[in-house]
Amino acid sequence: MHAHDDVSALFAPASVCVAGASRDPAGVWEAVVGNLVRAGYTGKIFPVLDAGGEDSPPAVYVSAQQAKAGSDSGDSAGAAEPAESSVLHRAKDESCFGNGGETLPSVGPSGLRGTKPAGPLSESGTLHGLPVYRKPSDIGAGFPPDLAVLCLPGYRTPDALRAFAALGTRAALVLGPGGSEPQGAGRAAAEPVRRIARHCGMTMLGPDSLGICIPKTGLLAFPARVAVRSGGIGFFARSGVLCASLLELAATMRIGFSSFVSLGVWATASEADMLDHFAADPQTRVIAGCLEYIEDGPRFLRSARNAAEKKPVILLRIGSSAAGARTVSACTGAVTASARACAAAFKKAGIIEVCEFGELFALAAAFDACALPSGPATAVIADDWSLGAAAADRCEENGLVVPPLSESTIGELQKLLPSRSLSLNPVNAPAAASPELLGRLAGAVLRDAAAAALLLLICVDDRRNVETLPEILAGLPNFTDKTVLVCLMGGKSAERARERFAGRGIPCLSSPGQAGACLAALYRRKFLQEQPQPVDIEYRHDKGRARAAVAEARAAGATELSLYHAREIMRAYEVPCLESSLARTGAEAVRIAAQIGGPVALKIASPHITHKADVQGTALNLCGPKEIRAAFTSLTSRAARLHMEAYIAGCIVQAMSPADARATGIFMKRDRVFGPMLLFGLDGCRPCESGKLSCRLLPLSLDDAHDMVREILACPVQAGQATEKEMINFAALEDILLILSRLALDCPEVEEIVCRPVTVDHKGAEVVNVRIWLARMPADDKERAGA
Q1: What DSSP designation does 493 have?
Q2: Per-residue confidence at 183, pLDDT binned at 50, 70, 90?
Q3: What is the pLDDT of residues 626-680, one digit of tens each?
Q4: Which class for 488: exposed (0-12), middle (13-18), buried (19 or more C-beta within 10 A)?
Q5: Which stretches of 120-237 are DSSP H helices?
Q6: Cβ of 279: how many Cβ atoms within 10 Å?
Q7: Which of 236, 212, 355 has the alpha carbon at shortest distance from 288?
Q8: Secondary structure class of 603 (helix, strand, coil)
Q9: Please, what is the Cα angle at 178 between 240 and 20, to 5 degrees?
């Protein structure tokens, strides 16, 4: 583990130094210190006026009594308000404040938490009752702060990082811009600060981070007055502005966090670090976040898989569209992964993906509070029949089932409901049903062994009071054994009720669609937990032979290999291909065709002709010596005439595919972030098109290959009704996928493979045509190869 990969100083610092100063009483420096004091941070706090720059801007100080008075009233996670009745004071010693002659608000009694005034400013001023130091070195080398919070202009940040690194500080939080640019300029502006942090072995959040909050320890390093609830959700995102808005949204939804982290732009701490920490953190039960971009795809994938095995991981991916990816790249300078690669990565790691922020927090809250359903069977209770029908629609659209209830449950419900009400599933409760009646209906449904989950939908208005319902539901005997979600439809009246449900730990959603999606995600999590570990298969192959063929092609300057040149690599991995051979003359073509037997195809062989269709370079279903000779002469002469600069090696003589075989395509591409991935689809789909293609990141497991094929192909007739020739040999396609997975991992110089068509019938599958693209050789490698 690198020094900057150790995030313990971020999440459990024993001391925090807040560096920066401002004339504004509500400035960032004062606000961060005030938030730490009011939130009851359990470690030591060191306000520093000057973090290494030559100038020392003046600051605002408030007394300890005012800080304490503020902390005794209001939210414990809020920021202290500046005092209006501060006593003005100015120290004569210029070494304390810098330039003399200015008047600063100052002093109150020091000694917060019994701390004795210390440092050069102990006689001159305090901030929230804490002694203020002029520069980091005044704190003393024997007590280096674990975490430095930098509330500084961008041009002063590099010097501040060096000063704290000299003290032995292990982590830094950069709230402002990282360079001299007035606005966030992406990687170019952040790179100097990032380089310094990495060189000094410091873990860094930011530049342009909102901060970090650990409610349990009172670590509220935010520059604004916020209220952060304690809970079991570990959250991370990059954008500081977005995080500020999400905190507001979380407050309205009554969401609680174990940790809330704003990574900022180009932090040394990454999403993978957050996943590793939250996976090991006993306070975190659910991991959630916004994924703007990924620096190290393979490491992120490893961390995500490890985290998802232990806890639910819910992510909202930003930049999935072409326009969104362009925006992310333009604003951050990051290389973004393709949407298809990200989707494959999420599937491989077991990440739950959501599409909007409300759904992100709603699903995280549901995972935090609910038991996972044992099956897909869902019971629905609604006090309006149309609302119940809508919920049933959304449940079944998401793969759940809404089955009829048992006869004993129906008998109980009929005793509680009017005769005109239907008591099937969904259960139609009377309009404006009392909390007591809704509780009895829920209790009857929860006793039904066939119902794994309960969805309760209620219409709320200002004339209806359901605030006692949370206590009633929480007291039901089977409440904690089954999954229970509540959906409250309404405005301000529903908001008041949601507060009561949140207090009892019952997830409260705002729409049937959101409720159906949450239940489906909970069930999928349970289903995946019960699946066996994936099986890996190793096929016979000659890696050295393949790499030698790749090296020979690259040394010759080739970057694109057609069927004739690519077949050596395919043979090294024993990829099943249609029997073929190169014929340099018409007579040789006749001889090869006789060896193959049956009708054959002739394809022009030239390293300079990329697309055979450009020269009509293919002839099919050729029989007999005369027809084969004529086709050979026609193909080679036409190609030489249309491409006079091309070298014509001859023609590939190839067996014909079975007439009843299905045509498919297999593609290997290397994503810029996640690396190699395989795609499978019907013949005619291209990897760059939006046609239906299944996709997985490598390495491929047997289950991956199984699912890839069946996402595209299905047996044409129900099992037992299909003839032998109508069946498809799925296993043969899976073998080719797994072999190509091994090839791509063994030969990183191979950038892309296109196997199209790949024909499959009841007997097996064979690659008809293949093209391989190689990465360009660097100049120094070319020189060594030439030598």
Answers
A1: H
A2: very low
A3: 999 999 999 999 999 999 989 999 999 999 998 889 999 999 999 999 999 999 9
A4: buried
A5: 157-167, 187-200
A6: 19
A7: 236
A8: strand
A9: 85
Q: For residue 763, what are the contacts with CB-CB under 8 A and spacing of at least 6?
A: 658, 729
Q: What is the rounded CA–CA span in Å between residue 128 and residue 30?
A: 8
- 176-187 CB burial, b ≥16 within 10 A, e <16: bbbbeeeebbbb
CA neighbor of 77 nearest in space, from 271, 286, 217? 217
- Tokens representing residue 729 in the block: 């040999």
What is the Cα–Cα distance from 359 to 353, expressed in whole angstroms?
10
Q: What distance in Å separates the CA atoms of residue 644 and residue 641, rounded to the nearest whole number?
A: 6
Q: Which residue has the tokens 């394809």?
A: 603
Phi and psi (nearest 5°) for 17? -110, 125
Question: Each residue of 557-580: pLDDT tens digit?
Answer: 888 888 878 989 999 999 999 999
* Beta partners for residue 19, in sequence order: 48, 150
List Cβ neighbours of 621 (8 Å cut-off, separation of 6 or more). Answer: 599, 601, 656
Give the mean pLDDT of 102-109: 28
Axis crossing angle, helix 157-167 with helix 187-200, rounded to the nearest 10: 10
Helix (H, G, I), strand (E, B) or coil at 602: strand
Residue 634 · residue 617 · CB < 8 Å: no
Q: How far apart are CA 208 and CA 214, in angstroms?
A: 19
Rounded to whole angstroms, the Cα distance separating 273 from 578 reads 48
Contacts of 467 (CB under 8 A, 6+ apart): 435, 496, 497, 500
Instruction: Give the pair of three-digit tokens for residue 682.
Output: 């019907």
Residue 463's SS3 state is coil
* CA nearest to 456, candidates 476, 439, 474: 439
CA–CA gap between residue 518 and residue 520 (Å, rounded): 5
Q: What mean pLDDT is reported for the chain?
A: 83
The Cα–Cα gap between 160 and 141 comes to 16
The rounded distance, in Å, linking the Cα atoms of 370 and 523 is 11
Those residues with Cβ within 8 angstroms of residue 170's Cβ, 6 or more apart along the chain or in another chain: 3, 6, 8, 9, 146, 147, 201, 202, 203
Which stretches within 98-222 are classed as H helix? 157-167, 187-200
Three-class DSSP category at 480: coil
Q: Distances in Å between the alpha carbon of 266 and those of 193, 195, 406, 572, 589?
A: 9, 10, 57, 43, 60
* Structure token digits, residue 614: 């450009």
Within 13 Å and on the Cβ side, how many CA atoms surround 461?
5
Look at the block and give the residue holding tokens 């060191």.
46
Output b/e per residue, 335-344; b: 16+ Cβ within 10 A: bbbbbbbbbb
> Taking a C-beta distance cutoff of 8 angstroms, is the pair 666, 755 a contact?
yes
State the amino acid at position 544 in one-letter form: G
- List pLDDT tens digits, range 256-312: 999 999 999 889 999 999 999 999 999 999 999 999 999 899 999 999 999 999 999
Alpha-carbon distance of 86 to 63, in angstroms, equals 8
Task: Count Cβ atoms within 10 A of the Cβ of residue 371 and give its class: 0-12 exposed, 13-18 middle, 19 or more buried.
Answer: middle
Give the span between the Cα atoms of 348 and 737, in whole angstroms.
16
Q: What is the pTM of this model?
A: 0.83
Q: Which residues contact 210 (CB under 8 A, 6 or more apart)?
A: 175, 222, 223, 240, 241, 243, 244, 262, 264
Q: Tens digit of pLDDT for each residue in 466-494? A: 888 999 999 998 888 899 999 998 877 78
Task: Say if CB 564 and CB 649 are below 8 A apart.
Answer: yes
The residues that bridge with 79 in the sheet, in sequence order, are none
Which of the residue ranges 82-86, 330-334, 391-395 has the most confident prediction, judged by mean pLDDT? 391-395
Token pair, residue 780, equals 């120094």
- pLDDT on residue 523: 95
Residue 296, Cβ density class (10 Å: 0-12 exposed, 13-18 middle, ≥19 buried): middle
- From CA 752, how far away is CA 727, in angstroms rounded? 31
For residues 68 and 48, give the distance between their C-alpha atoms in angstroms, rounded to a whole number: 21
